[in-house]
User: Fold these one by one.
Assistant:
Number 1:
Amino acid sequence: MSQNIFALVDCNNFYASCEKLFRPDLAEKPVVVLSNNDGCIIARSREAKTLGIKMGLPVFQVRDLLRKHDVVAFSSNYALYADMSQRVMSTLETLAPRVEVYSIDEAFLDLTGLDFSQNLTEFGISVKHIVQKWTGITVCVGIAPSKTLAKLANHAAKTWHKTGGVVDLTNKDRQRKLLALLPVNEVWGIGGKLTKRLQQLGIDTALQLADADPNYIRQHFSVVVERTVRELNGESCIALEDIAPTKKQIISSRAFGERITDKQQMCEAISEYISRACKKLRQEQQLAKHLTVFLRTSPFSDKDAPYSASKSIELDSPSSDTRVFLAKAMLLLDGLWMNGYRYAKAGVMLADFYDPGVHQPGLFDDPIVQKDSDQALMQLMDKLNSKHADTIWFASQGSQQEWGMKRELLSPAYTTNWAQLPIVK
Amino acid sequence: MSAVFIGNADSWPKRPIPFYADPVKAGFPSPAQDYVERTLDLNELCIRHPNATFFVRVDGDSMIEAGIYDGDILVVDRSVDADHGDTVVAAVGGEFTVKQLCTRPSLMLLPRNPAYQPIRPRNGEELNIFGVVTNVIRQMKHK
């Protein structure tokens, strides 16, 4: 049996790179992207990182620093990022037969069993080159026999510029050399709490974790950590998944076993992805405000006409209610669906997350309200409307205006709105 | 000049256009002939590589002799390698510009309007090409 081989492709400074792509005047300038309330820094360009601007910092704390270095700040433009993500991911699908979209800016490629006429490093370089050329987004590629090692290989590719952004970690000696250099908390799935406990056992580096006895680890930690130990030793225990376990956004998608040509079937598939994604969202105890639906034909078929499209929508207020997202997804699908294509893949992405209670919900969109009380609320609303129209109008207007103010640094929807295309002179 | 009617489109590029098997004279499609055989899709015609294709809008008249006018939408394909003579979108001086690429006798971006000067990269300066223009979309009737 052939050895498993995975590649992790990760976009460099994704949100900031999306913003820069359409602003040649910002090519060498530091750029940051702000969270949904323009409150915190959630993405930084290479130049901004060099200035020492940290992730997650509230804007008011670094306002002077931003001003001093002429840092350009953007509100998060999820319509743009989702479209660019979809371009990167479908480009990757032309390069490898099995792709797991792991987050908005990361994907695992399963290269197992592929016959490479070129070596893996060359393959990685060509992936990097093609994604850059086609989409304008720069990526790093880490290649290894397990997903956990591929993650670390990618980390190495990002950290050390000498690598040229591509690291092939299929060689055992290279694996051990790299693991010895990395602290244990750099390992995929090893968080803060776990790191502390491991350190108490004298496990500080990734290599020490790799060399730990798997049985001991299972008894004292969990099967999950045991799996990590095996993965660090090049034994693949985590296969490609259809649903990406991440907290920045949730993506649920799958390549269809057979091509879909019927809209009803597509509705069913999208509904299924929505319900899985929303379930995941509730498990993470998060609310999402942004929904993307995408579908595409097979990039490998010469017979099929190519079609690849995505649409996004922003809810009035964040929700985790399956019904809410389902209704919106069907609207988006109506706009996306074109008869006559043989669809190979579709999926949904939830993004722009909020902790419950952080966002002031509108009167109609409390996600925990049940259907009956929803109706009661509607009736109450109708009654109030006829008597005190002004008051009701004021309340809803207020929340919308507040929202508008908090995205004052929003860039145009360069790729998803005819009225906001980039200008060429 | 004659035109052959091939179908109706209400909006582009979202909708496929019904393709009529029997071509008819412009303006008078017979009800008997409206058997829809398949659909024509402008995406198919204009977009070879959807993942690498971007739309941009033209501002200015530097390319009028190449048939590119103010307000036109350009279909730009990043996956195509730019060759001598191609119309390209490039980043020059911090903004996007559409010009004709000349690689010989020397590298430059050629405007197609005598009122404009060619753009030559200075020594050691790289030409930053965003993509190759494959199609021009112009609205002929404004609502």
Note: Confidence is low (pLDDT under 50) at residues 7-25, 27-34 of chain B.
Number 2:
Amino acid sequence: MDTFKLEILTPNGQIFNGEAVSVTLPGEEGEFGVLAHHASLTTLLEAGVIDIEKENKAVESILINWGVVNVDEEKVIVLVEGAVAIRGDNESAISKALEDARELISSIADSNSAIASVSAKIESAAKRLL
Amino acid sequence: MANLKDIKRQISSVSNTQKTTRAMKLVSTAKLRRAEELAKRSRLYAEKMNQVIAEIAGRIKCSKIGGIDNRCFTKIENPKIVDIIFVTADKGLCGGFNIQTIKAVKKLIAEYKEKNVKVRLRGIGKKGVEFFKYNEVELFDSVSNLSSKPDKARSDSFIATSIEDYKDGKIDGIHLVYNGYKNIITQELHVTTVLPVDTNQYECAEMPSSLLEIEAEDEEYMLDSLVTKYVEYSMYYSLIDSVAAEHSARMQAMDTATNNAKDMVKTLKVQYNKARQAAITTELIEIISGVESMK
């Protein structure tokens, strides 16, 4: 399957840089997926979870609070303000990531209904890893 | 020749200064490490943000996105009033760090004056603000304690005035002047135009032929919030970059000062020893001549 280059950056450094098969992004107008050779597009992202499907079929989830995505034919650049990657090699690392994610969720001020589904999503992503 | 006591006093004074400058250098080195780390991590984000904005700007110019007329992306002919925001340190003793920024600001002001453009000066950092106040250059507003401790919330609220005024058409441009960090021994002066976004970075011929779709119900709103974030981040990034540069400049200045003090102590010690020997010689001569006269 075709892959594309995906970069996710935060003001505190790069959080993801590599090849991906598909990525699902929480757009302001609703969730959307991107595959390789997607048409050029720029849009804002709201608080939510980015799901990245990697070449080995593994799915990585990253929680974000605000962002902007720039898609072109070759690569996808996602600039986010705050992000927590739900990943880790062992249980303690994952639970640490989960803790950070909860903290980020609570810092998202506007209490929209989407937040609940976001929490559910990261919990399930963490479960998948454990 | 100066007397012994004077030289001794001078030596102890210079070596005390040396102790202070050495301590300041060590403090700066420690602080620099942290600031440098922060600046390095943010640099990538800042660069990509600029790239995304430049691409949108380029596409708007080459009208690959139709029907967008946003003030932030159009070159303004005959600007009437512009904002100049400068970032200096709150403290001195860092060599030419502050004066370089001040000089660049003065140059920019002079350039605008020639074109009959009014300048609204906004300052961050005590040293620059003090300079312009002393020289009776009018400052629109200023903040201190922000450049030494960059804080996202405070930086956002500071720049918000400029962004709002720009969008409302009260000002026609925002310039940012600061001294940034290049490496441990060099600082790089940045004079950037934040708004309007520079549309000349991309050549129309080089642009990808495909259309860029802006996926939003309200494109204006999307571009507006994107530009706001971009300007806010440029401001914040300039603060962290400037703080790293400030520490590296101070480290260098203090290192030079320590070395100079060392040299000075050395020459003073030579002088002291010479004076001491001269005193001994005089004493001996006095004794000998006393003995001679008694014979």
Note: Chain B touches chain A at residues 41-42, 44-45, 48-49, 51-52, 55-56, 208, 210-217, 222, 225-226, 229, 233, 236 (CB under 8 Å).
